[in-house]
Structures are given as structure tokens and as C-alpha cells.
Amino acid sequence: MSERKVLNKYYPPDFDPSKIPKLKLPKDRQYVVRLMAPFNMRCKTCGEYIYKGKKFNARKETVQNESYLGLPIFRFYIKCTRCLAEITFKTDPENTDYTMEHGATRNFQAEKLLEEEEKRVQKEREDEELNNPMKVLENRTKDSKLEMEVLENLQELKDLNQRQAHVDFEAMLRQHRLSEEERQRQEQEEDERETAALVEESRKRRLLEDSDSEEDTTPTQPQPALRPNPTAILDEVTKRKAESWERSVAVMAGPVLLASPRLGAMKNGQAAGPAPQMPSTSSLSQLGVYSDSEDSSGSN
């Protein structure tokens, strides 16, 4: 495997590395590298936003006469994605960051500015304490007072947590469950009452409709109290049929039938005896049978 990859090279016994000519390159020569934008920036030429992490084909060079604790500082050249204007930034090993140099402005660097401000305040304080012992005592007093306030706030938070720890969560859940059951029971009772009210209302409406229908049909049916006597009705019908029969017979038979004592009595309104009970209600057949029976009784 090592022979196939040719990791080891053969050096002859008379090999002298000092005889190899050295390539002379300028110190400020540039290399083409592939990198990503280290921070958000905005182009000064066209106003295009370039976001952190966008990839570029950049040119890299070493900054001359600048270093930090022996570490070289590099400069990078990129082009705007819209107007192709040149943007340059360089490394900042002191703050472990990058510094915008030309062609764009850096955005969203509030955290960096805050850190720089804190460092500046700290440095000013150290300078004041270096030459003024009273300032040292004052700063220590302020620090101790601030520390006591922080401890008091922490103790209040602990007490609050302890008070909340004594709360019976099971009782609270039980009370909530009971209140929920009571609310459901009340809702169920209200539903039942509403249902009963609707049923009662529908029943009353049905009774009213039935009573109205009975009132409409009652006049067509004869009332039992006002019903006349059947015998009187029969007598009236018999009288009417007799009169019509008398007129018809008088026209058809002449004075022979009118001489009959039964017809004379009926004409004068005198009763000739009780009428026989006949099953048929036909006036003509009834009167004919009646006259025949009277004739037969008179002959006997």
C-alpha cells in the first residue's frame, strides 16, 4: 500500500539540499483563497447587504509592518455581489475578530461595542485607583453595597420559592376538579330544564291545536241535549209524505180515493189510530202498505 502511494522517496548518497535553488517571491504577494464573510456588512457604493457566511473567492496578502505579538496580520480583498466594488478587511488577533478596512460598513456590532465600552470603563477605573487611594476605598464600598443588595434579592427569591413549596398542589387540583364537576352538573341541569320547557311548550301547542280542531268540527255534529224526539220527527215526516201522497193520488185516482174515510180523517187532521211499525223508511211504500192494512181492517 505504501509503495503504491509513493510516500517515501529515494534520496541518493550524494544528495545536497543546499544546491537546490530557492524560489524568490515578493513578501507582499497575493494568494487566491476561498473564504466566507466573517460578519454582516453593507456596500458603500450600491448599498447591497452582504450577510455573514456568504462565500467569496478572495485575494489574501500579508500586511507589512503590522503584527501582534509576532503574529502576522492578513488582509483580504473581496468584490461586492452587485456592483463588483472592492471591499477589504483584515484580521484582528488581539480581539479574535476581523476589522473592516475599506469599501463597506459593518452591521450588527452592538455586542462588540458593548464589550469595548466595558473594557474602557474598567481601564479608566484601574487608572484612577492607581493614583488615588480614596477612590479605591469608595469603589470598594460601592462594590460591597452592590453585593449586599444582590444577596438580599437572592434571599427574597429563596423565601418566595419556599413559600410556594408549601402550597398543596393536590388540594388545588382537587378543588379545581370539584369546581369543574359542579359546573358540568349545573350545565346538565340547565340543559334538562330547557329540554323540559321545550317539551311542555310543544305539548301545550299540540293541545291548543287539538282544541281548535275540535271547535271547528263540533257544529257539524248534533248535540245530544238538543237532539229532537225521534217520534216527533217520524210524525212530521209521515205528515209531509201523506200530504204529498194525497195530492198525487188525487190527481191520479180522482174522487174515488178521496171518499175513503181514512184519507178524509188524515185530511181533517184526525188520528185514526196508532201507525204500524214498519222496517222501511220509504214514504211511498210505507203509506201504501199502511193504506192496504187499513182497507183490510175495514173490510174485516
Automatic annotation (TrEMBL):
Component of the spliceosome. Present in the activated B complex, the catalytically activated B* complex which catalyzes the branching, the catalytic step 1 C complex catalyzing the exon ligation, and the postcatalytic P complex containing the ligated exons (mRNA) and the excised lariat intron. The gene is YJU2. GO terms for cellular component: U2-type catalytic step 1 spliceosome. Zn(2+) binds at residues 43, 46, 80, 83. Pfam families: Saf4_Yju2. InterPro entries: Saf4/Yju2, Yju2. The keyword Ion transport does not apply. GO terms for biological process: generation of catalytic spliceosome for first transesterification step. Belongs to the CWC16 family. YJU2 subfamily. Part of the spliceosome which catalyzes two sequential transesterification reactions, first the excision of the non-coding intron from pre-mRNA and then the ligation of the coding exons to form the mature mRNA. Plays a role in stabilizing the structure of the spliceosome catalytic core and docking of the branch helix into the active site, producing 5'-exon and lariat intron-3'-intermediates. May protect cells from TP53-dependent apoptosis upon dsDNA break damage through association with PRP19-CD5L complex. It comes from the Eukaryota. This is Splicing factor YJU2. Residues 179-246, 266-300 are annotated as: Disordered. Keywords: Metal-binding, mRNA processing, mRNA splicing, Nucleus, Spliceosome, Zinc. It is found in: Nucleus. It comes from Capra hircus (Goat). Residues 278-288 have a biased composition (Polar residues). One of its GO terms (molecular function) is metal ion binding. Residues 200-209, 236-246 have a biased composition (Basic and acidic residues).
